[in-house]
Amino acid sequence: MMTVQQTPLNILLADDDEDDRLLFKDAFGEIKIKTNVQMVNDGVQLMHYLNNPELNLPDIVFLDLNMPLKSGFECLAEIRSAKRLKDLSVAIYSTSGSDEDIEETFVKGANVYIKKPNDFSVLKKILGEVITINWQYHTSGLNRDTFLLSL
Amino acid sequence: MKIYLKYDINVVCRKVLEEQLEKLNLQYNILGISELELKTNLYNGQQEHLNKVLKEYGIEIVENQKSALVQKIKDTISEIVHLEDKLPNAKISSYLAERLHHSYGYLANLFSEITFSSIENYVIMQKIERAKQLLTIDQLTLTEIAYKLNYSSVAHLSNQFKKTTGLTPSAFQRIINKRRNATIS
């Protein structure tokens, strides 16, 4: 039962937009929890990374919904049906904030839904909240099956 | 066929500890869910071995006293929120101070320093966890849940649920049901 954060949290980000990737990386750099951020450019690269048994699984994956080659939804479905990956925390982010889209994403197995904000300080606050709560789920014996968070 | 399980994490942990400590031939006393006393000192190799076998079960030996106290705060809160059928009316702050023999101010500062979150937030999070369980497994109504968890009204519970998860209790319930149906069919 780890209480103090001794090692940085491993975060994996999949987004095809370079500006967005940089924005996320900067935001993680400015929050007080220590993180180690890895980035991939699309869904195919993401699944390749996750399915490589030599690489440690991240504590949480942030997935852009709209990516070429393999969409966030397709990745999510693959993650939830793979034995080794099915307990992975998945945070989806999208520009849509409609209730139907949010609900569908959760039904398909996402843990976190983020409506992408336009403001950098809001993004920072949201990402900090997501990884703090995700960390609580890992360290406080909470039921991961009902871990749903919409921001 | 799909079956749903409910388990007591304390019993599981205790069983794991007993089995592993006995395998190492150690004399021990389990004092609580996150504390145990060994009757003899461990030599270096033994300590490493114990760390290694426990780690496989996600159990870590916490050496730092501050973290141990934070863990006790968390355990005490979980106990109050999850083990009692109905939450006691007494304030959790005075209960913690009394049980852990420190002032609430000291405990609250320590908790924030180590976890980046406050005791109040942690209590809310645990109460909402219990509410999720009562909603989806025990199928209680919001009125029943509000009573059990000491909310002054259903509106207060609903608001806190929405604030903590971003979802209303009914949307949450709908999502979990849809997920279950999707895996059954």
How does the SSE layout of this entry go?
The complex is a heterodimer of chains A (151) and B (185).
Chain A: E1 9-14, H1 18-30, E2 35-40, H2 43-50, E3 60-64, H3 72-81, E4 89-94, H4 99-107, E5 112-115, H5 120-139, E6 149-150
Parallel strand pairs in A: 1-2, 1-3, 3-4, 4-5, 5-6
Helix pairs in contact in A: 1-5, 2-3
Chain B: H1 9-23, E1 28-32, E2 35-38, H2 44-55, H3 65-83, H4 92-100, H5 104-115, H6 119-136, H7 142-148, H8 154-165, H9 169-184
Antiparallel strand pairs in B: 1-2
Helix pairs in contact in B: 3-4, 3-5, 3-6, 7-8
| Distance from first to last alpha carbon of chain A | 28 Å
Largest protein-protein interface: A-B, 24 and 36 residues
Strand order of the largest sheet of chain B: 1-2
The counted number of beta strands of chain B is 2
Strand content of chain B: under 5%
Rough shape of chain B? globular
Structural class of chain B: mainly alpha
Q: Low-confidence runs of chain A (pLDDT<50, min 5 residues)?
A: 1-5
Task: Describe the 3D structure.
The complex is a heterodimer of chains A (151) and B (185). Chain A is 40% helix and 19% strand. Chain A is α/β, with parallel strands linked by helices and 151 residues long. Chain A has a six-stranded parallel β-sheet with strand order 2-1-3-4-5-6, sandwiched between helices. The two termini of chain A are 28 Å apart. Chain B contains nine helices and two strands; from the N terminus they run H-E-E-H-H-H-H-H-H-H-H. Chain B has helices spanning 9-23, 44-55, 65-83, 92-100, 104-115, 119-136, 142-148, 154-165, 169-184; strands at 28-32, 35-38. At the A-B interface, helix 4, helix 5 and strand 6 of A face helix 3, helix 6 and helix 9 of B.
